[in-house]
């Protein structure tokens, strides 16, 4: 049970971070300021990492419920 609660907390944290990165990228794209392509690439990679971790945790939680 404790592991599931830890996973849920981590899931919430990762979803929050993923959403924050999404909003940050959206602001950058809408901005009239020049963009740093390397920074955008790094932000997108980090966002993708969070997405992958979210899917993994959700899968782990589903497996725990079924078992």
Tell me the number of strands: 0
- In this structure, how is the largest beta sheet organized? none
Q: Approximately how much helix is present in the residues?
A: over 70%
Note the total helix count.
Answer: 2
Give the percentage of residues in beta strands: under 5%
Uncertain parts: none
Number of folding domains? 1
| Alpha-carbon distance between the two ends | 13 Å
Mean pLDDT comes to 91
Category by helix and strand content: mainly alpha
Shape: elongated
Radius of gyration: 15 Å
Helix-strand string: HH
Structural features, described:
This protein has one domain (about 1-65). It is elongated. The protein has helices at about 1-30, 35-65. The mean pLDDT is about 90. The protein is mainly α and about 70 residues long. The longest helix has 30 residues, at about 35-65.
Summarize this, please?
The chain is built from 2 helices and no strands.
């Amino acid at each position: 049970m404790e592991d599931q609660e830890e996973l849920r907390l981590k899931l919430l944290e990762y979803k929050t971070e993923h959403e924050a990165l999404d909003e940050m990228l959206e602001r950058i794209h809408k901005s009239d300021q020049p963009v740093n392509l390397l920074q955008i690439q790094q932000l997108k990679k980090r966002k993708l990492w969070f997405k992958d971790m979210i899917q993994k945790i959700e899968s782990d939680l589903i497996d725990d419920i079924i078992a």
